[in-house]
Structures are given as C-alpha cells and as structure tokens.
Amino acid sequence: QFVSDPCASNPCHHGNCSTSGDGYLCLCSEGYEGRNCERSFHSLPVSEQTELTSPRQNRAISSTLEPDVVLPRSRATVTLPTWQPKEGQKVVDLKWDETEITPDVACGNASSNTSAGGRLVSFEVPQNTSIKIRQDATASLILLWKVTTTGFKQCSLIDGRSITLLQALGGLVLSEEMLALGNNYFIGFLNDSVTKCIVALRLTVIVKVSTCMPVGSHSGNLPCSGKGRCITKPDEATFFCDCEDEYHGSLCEEFDACQSQPCQNNATCIDVAQKHDRNIFTCSCLPGYTGELCQSEVDHCIQQPCQNGGTCSSSVSGFSCQCPEGFLGTSCEDKIDPCASSPCQNNGTCYADRLAFSCSCSPGFTGPTCAQLIDFCALNPCAHGICRSVGTSYRCLCVPGLY
C-alpha cells in the first residue's frame, strides 16, 4: 500500500518516472538530463555541461540510444506494495553471494560513462514460482525493467517496461505473473555497497516446466514428496527431483528398502512397493542359503538322507554320506553284494560272506572262482598204463596183459 506516490505529480519533464525504495528515478529521453530531465544538455554552456556530467547515469552504449537514468538526491516517503503470498505459493531465493555473476562489459556501470562494473546474471526457476531477490551486504536491487531480446543484447531500455517489485522480509519479490516459460530478460540497477555506486544488471530468468509435483496435486503438497530437491541443469529442459539416498521414483515417492543392502551372502534384494510407509523388502537367496536375509546355510542333513547308518555332512553345495561297511551309493542305499557280479564260473555256486565271497564248484572244476578243470590224472591213478581225463573222471589205457 503506497503512502505517497512520488511519480503522481509527473516530476520527470522529458522522461518516464519510476518509483523505488529511495524515492523516484527519472528515465530521461535522449538529449535531456538533470534530476527531473528538465535540461537539454545540447543547449547548456560547456562549463555547466561539465558540472552535470557526474549526476548523469548510464549511457554506456550510445548506439542503442537508451535514455539516461537519474538517481534521486533526496529520500521520498514511499513503500512498495507488500508481497502477500497465496496458499501453497512457491518462491526461490536469488542470493547475490550464491549466484554466479559475470562482469558485463556491454552494459557497464550505471553511475558513470564507463563500461566497467556491470553484472550479467542467469537464474533458473520452475514454473509458477516467484523470485525473492535478496538484499544483502553485497548489493540491493533498486530498479528493474523487463525488456525484449534485442533490448537485452543492446543493453537498451527502449520498448522495456518498468516492473513493480513487491516488498518482502529480507528482499524484493519478482512475482511469478511477470515470468513466462522460457527466457525472460530484465535490465536493472543495483546499489553496490563494495564499489559505492549504482551498477547495471542484466538478468536472464529461465523458467522451466517442473516435474517435481504430480499432475493435479494439492498446493500443500511438497515438491519431490518432501524426500528430495527440485533441481535443474543448464542442459536439462525441466526441473526434476534429485532424491535422497533411500528414496527413488520420478517424484521420490518410493522408499528404497534395498538401499542399505540388507541381504547377505550375495543374495538379490527385491524392493516391495510401499511408498513411504514401511521398510519392506524380500531377499532372493543363492542356492545353499536360507533365512529372511539369506544369512544361514541350508542344512541339507535335516531330512536325514543317509540310509543304513550312514553319516551325513552338509555344505553349501548339498550333502554327502559316509557309508558303513557293506553299503554304498549317494545315500548309502545300496548293500554291497560280492556275488552280484557272478564271480563263480562253470556253474559254481557263490556264497557271500560280508564283503567276500566263496565258490562251491561243480564236479570237475576247482579254484577260487571254479575257473580251473580238475586234472584227474595228476595223482597217476593208472599203475600200469596211461591216464586220460574224461569229463569229470579219468580212464586208464593199460599195458597189454594188465587191467
């Protein structure tokens, strides 16, 4: 709410009047100067022109034909409209000590006719967001105009329009209504406490679409679900969510229960969708491991797989059985039968004795496996003749005259 409007009386004779926290400033038309743009410097004597050189403000690039800015010599009683943020209002701070500032030779210093001391600043904001331009020990904003692309490049206020800034605690607010998607160009003047002079400012505000809030969200919703920062980069087309370590999703809406790597023994952690409610996950264990976190080896012997008194040993890969004498197989399921291979030949009969066997041979055969024919002539049964084995017996070919 204005207490008084210093521009109401049209004090600028040949120029435009603009209010500021310190009174009013006259934006003089080409060829005029003075506190109220009341003097044509072409008609002044040389000595008077010289005396008035100091109060004149910024005509850094004469080719652009921009008017002079004249600073007030006295303080006027004026207050800017108070910023009254609406419910759910989004605002970002432009802090001079945290903003990258490039020396701007093109625009120069507003308090002199030199090209030194200008500031070139680029600032990115999400859509539907106001900017609080902080007033600090480094600098404070005095005036601001929104200009065309051409005016910005040429550092000219021609075709520009004065912006009414809103008073807020700790700074001035550039309302979101003044900002369109894309590049917004401004020219302003700062009161630089370091150089003790008025410094020209060229400010580019880049407004980008924000993907940090769900479509149709309530104004009270927090960007990035309150679990991340809404950021952008020069090479990005939008503002997006940079989530805290334990959250993921385009809006940081999902708690990542696997972020802490709770599953052991190289198991795979599977995050269960639960929003922000609970720490829910499952572990997919590698073969040989079990437990909620795959922390234990599987006991393959719990089902007692070894038979016939075998001793079971468990490992990650499975179980093994130490079989007692007389048994074999993976589970000691097979009894050892020494006669299973039919070791007794020539119709001999096999008899098992634990791990050994014995053969009862058929007539005419002998040996451990009945593999040898009995030599019935070995004992020389023929007293006076020649012995011949015949089948399971023998015959004597007697000497003539004997039998």
TrEMBL record:
It comes from the Eukaryota. This is Delta and Notch-like epidermal growth factor-related receptor. Disulfide bonds join C7-C17, C28-C37, C224-C241, C243-C252, C285-C294, C323-C332, C361-C370, C377-C387. InterPro entries: EGF, EGF-like_Ca-bd_dom, EGF-like_CS, Growth_fac_rcpt_cys_sf. Keywords: Calcium, Disulfide bond, EGF-like domain, Glycoprotein, Receptor, Repeat, Signal. PROSITE patterns: EGF_1, EGF_2, EGF_3. GO terms for molecular function: calcium ion binding. It comes from Buceros rhinoceros silvestris. Residues 3-38, 214-253, 254-295, 297-333, 335-371, 373-403 form the EGF-like domain. Pfam families: EGF, hEGF. CDD domains: EGF_CA (cd00054).
